[in-house]
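Example 4.3 (complexes with small molecules)
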Amino acid sequence: MKLLYQTHSPYARKVLVMAREAGLADRLTVVHHETSPTWRNDEVFRLNPLGKVPVLLLADGTALFDSNVICEYLDGLHDRQPLIPRETKARLLALRLQALAQGLCDAGIAVRHETVRRPEALRYPAMRDGQIEKLVATYDFLERELVHTATGEPFDLGQIALATALDWLAFRDLPDFEPGRPRLSSWYRRCLERTSMLATTFAGQTVD
Ligand SMILES: N[C@@H](CCC(=O)N[C@@H](CS)C(=O)NCC(=O)O)C(=O)O
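Answer. The structure with glutathione bound is encoded below.
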């Protein structure tokens, strides 16, 4: 299977960490692609009309996107403990954590548009501030709620999504989640020590 990837995408890294945790990494050929709404990548568009990575290209030619769908597919390919829990309550909590992680990345990208990516004259400070509010409220929610969420083994999809999202927010110098949030911080620090995280660290700059 070919994974259209990006070395600085939190969504793409989530997929690769998931593949590693599931023991599937050696079945993937990982190819880096730059993407941006202002910089068309024809190869990505041919497979995903949204022009976004990650995309997983299967042997029969099917292209799977987005990262949530790819992770669900990968979880059906291995015989380790499922990384998307089967039991309803645990499953909903893991998927909710993934949704929060996706929301953190979406808000972080929006902040970057309003701070560094858009030409200066087109930036909108109220949009930047509104998106930062979402980040801070989510950090506070996680600090309160993490104790009620599975944070052990297996390193499930919710945890994978959150760890890769937080590490991307740190990589891009977005508002810091660590000060004053000891539970979130120590959980994040433990995640960084995992082989799957160490093997997939972020690199590179967005090309707009
Ligand atoms: N919801 C999608 C988000 C994917 C996404 O936004 N990928 C970014 C890279 S970080 C991208 O390719 N952006 C290009 C664009 O927005 O045109 C997923 O989870 O896969």
